[in-house]
Amino acid sequence: MKILNLYAGIGGNRKLWGNEHEITAIENNKQIARIYQEFFPDDIVLITDAHDYLLNYFKGYDFIWSSPPCPSHSRIRRFLAVEIGQNKPVYPDMKLYEEIVFLKSYFEGKWVVENVIGFYEPLIKPFEVASHYIWSNVFIDNISFIGSRQHNSKISELEDRKGFDLTHLNVIGIEKELLLRNCVEPELGKHIFDCVFKDNKTQIDLEEFM
Predict the structure, then answer these.
(1) Residue 193: CATH number of its domain
(2) Which of 24, 57, 146, 194 is a plausible cystine mate for 44, CB 3.0–4.6 Å?
């Protein structure tokens, strides 16, 4: 099976998928892409814009996972901007919804789009799974597990919970804590992967459930 992993980061969502599939990871940050490749040497890692890559190459894959950047949708960022004045208000990045509509309309395989629970009512109703929003053309069951979306303060705690040892990294401009906080919990990635492919579940029309 050919899998496209967009906005791959260091690969939290992909960590428990196994190595029997052909996985292409898209990450636009060269240093982060290098870290991903260290953890998953058998994957194809491309350093390019994930949004553009999806548009041009989606037909070559059986399953697509996308985790577009979440800060502009985040309740925490809005709180910091509105209540504290630490950040400037920003437009929510609508590439999130562009990709959902695009995949629903054009992609014939199975797909998942993951993001944070936003500060506004979602424009397209998602599944709510372990404190994440999940859009998909396959029904995704809810799950809860210890540590879900908990932002531990220590890097060592994050490394232990998410299963990534970054102690060997000494890369200028890369914040280990931020890398780990942005990393999808591997248990969630595995749960969603299993929901998509277990028992050959049939695809659904989002409008039936959302």
Answers:
(1) 3.40.50.150
(2) 24
